Amino acid sequence: MKILLSEEQLRQGVEQLAREITEHYGHRPVTIIGILTGSVVLLADLIRQLDMPLRVGVIQARSYRGDTTTPGPLSVHADLLPEVADCDVLLVDDIFDSGQTLQRITGQLNALGPRSVRSVVLLRKARSRETAIEPDHVAFEIPDEFVVGFGLDYHDAYRNLPYLAVLEEAELD
Ligand code: 5GP
Ligand code: MG
Question: What are the tens digits of pLDDT across the range 67-82?
Answer without folding.
Answer: 667 778 899 999 899 9
